[in-house]
């Protein structure tokens, strides 16, 4: 018998990608859990994110809530911040409350940490200002970084 079912959820789950993008579709930060590397730029991801951001920008009720898109082999968790104009996207094998909470907590602290930068974005976006985001990934997804 499993004494801590929440740990079972962590160990049987797998994370693939964690992405933070601006409403314009610009990639602010990306981490690949399979390669354990930060991803600097991806034309394909950028194109996909532009499409997703246009779709999500039409849903004002998505503010600060995790939205899930279920695929056959994976789940995609979104958290969209309309006020600051960014969204996070986590691709995982299974969606669960542990991941939803981690995404929510990440977003709260990402918004606090980058409030000034996100508020003052005009024109070109300097994604290098978000390089410290890995510290938050480590904090909220540490069980998946082992």
Structure write-up:
- With 146 residues, the protein is of the alpha+beta class.
- It has a single domain, classed as Beta-Lactamase (2-Layer Sandwich), CATH 3.30.450.70.
- The chain has helices spanning 5-11, 43-57, 97-113, 115-119, 133-140; strands at residues 15-22, 27-32, 37-38, 66-70, 75-81, 86-92.
- The chain has a six-stranded antiparallel β-sheet with strand order 3-2-1-6-5-4, sandwiched between helices.
Detail the topology: elements first, then pairings:
Elements: H1 5-11, E1 15-22, E2 27-32, E3 37-38, H2 43-57, E4 66-70, E5 75-81, E6 86-92, H3 97-113, H4 115-119, H5 133-140
Antiparallel strand pairs: 1-2, 1-6, 2-3, 4-5, 5-6
Helix pairs in contact: 3-5
What characteristic shape results from the CA principal axes?
globular
Helix content: 25-40%
Average residue pLDDT? 78
CATH architecture: 2-Layer Sandwich
Number of helices: 5
How is the main sheet built? Answer: 6 strands, antiparallel
Unreliable spans: 5-11
Structural class: alpha+beta
> What is the CATH topology?
Beta-Lactamase
Total beta strands: 6
User: According to CATH, what is the class?
Assistant: Alpha Beta
Topology order in helix (H) and strand (E) letters: HEEEHEEEHHH
Count of discrete structural domains: 1
Q: Rg from C-alpha positions?
A: 15 Å
In whole angstroms, the N-to-C terminal distance is 24 Å
- Percent strand equals 15-25%
In the sheet with the most strands, the strands line up as 3-2-1-6-5-4
